[in-house]
Amino acid sequence: MAISRLITKKVGFQLSASLVALLPLLSSASYQDAQATIKEQFQTQSTANQKHYQQQVAKSKAHWADTRTDKLRYATYFSADLQTRTTEDYENKTLVIETIDDSSIAKQSHQKQVKKQIDDIVEAQHSNSVTTEVVSRKGERILTTRITPQKQYWDNKALVYLDDIKMSAKQWQVPPSLILAIIYNESRFNPNAVSKAPAYGLMQIMEKSAAADVSNFFLDGQKISNESLMNPTLNIQVGSAYLHILTEKYLKDIELEHSRLLISIAAYNAGIGAVAKHFTKTNSIKSLVDTVNNKQFNDIYESLTNRFPYAETRHYVLAVVDKEHEYRELLKQ
């Protein structure tokens, strides 16, 4: 495999005006100097996220009996008046648009939302099937449309989060293509994904590993709540900050950047201790760094993808490396 596939130039991106940086760039300040500011910003944002989440759940229950709380399967969005609900069903790969009441006004609102979804799909040149029906539920009539996009529609959901990803990539000095590749392999860009572990959100953050490390390094031990991790912007920030910890803290003394990134990918999935044990038979990060510095990149890649003890991690490294290359090429366009 060509070494250049994991080498990415550092390119500056303009920050989205609609987003507020939750965690500042630390390139010109020590971690200790930045902790107070980070903690204050994080606590404010975390409280706001939890309050908004609870309000949305409470309001939706008043209109919709089946709230579809299976976060691994559904991503659900509501119109301002909560009368129209759009659900992305990741299990059945369908979009379901529902509007309470089939009056002429409701139908117009429903058709407008359906047209928007179809226009988005057609613009991306995705063929699809569309079915519409009126469903009766406890005395109410619900206008329901199901759209079945092609696979590429789901793959292109990365565009929704691209501003956040570019912002975090710049802040945390992580290639945006790597963040995209990890999100794709972790959650397929489902912001509501929750695994059995449990790991949360786009980058599948676990409270006792990635979130704990980010908290300890940047938030003076302030706990990162699971509810907050369901916010896509914050999730990407925390995941990117964790990648920064791996590459610039734990593994910073690995001399070759592409080798450091490769080890970081494996550590993101299996944990840095497991990666250290694979290469050194110990949990010593220093020993891991020394061992990697004495190995060729191709030998490291072969070891991780063919001889690592966890099949999941072997496949994960292969998949992330391939997807990283694909996204890096797309970002050049």
TrEMBL record:
Residues 1-36 form the signal peptide. The keyword Signal applies. GO terms for molecular function: peptidoglycan lytic transglycosylase activity. Residues 165-284 form the Transglycosylase SLT domain. One of its GO terms (biological process) is peptidoglycan metabolic process. Pfam families: SLT. Keywords: Signal. GO terms for cellular component: membrane. Belongs to the transglycosylase Slt family. This is Transglycosylase SLT domain-containing protein.
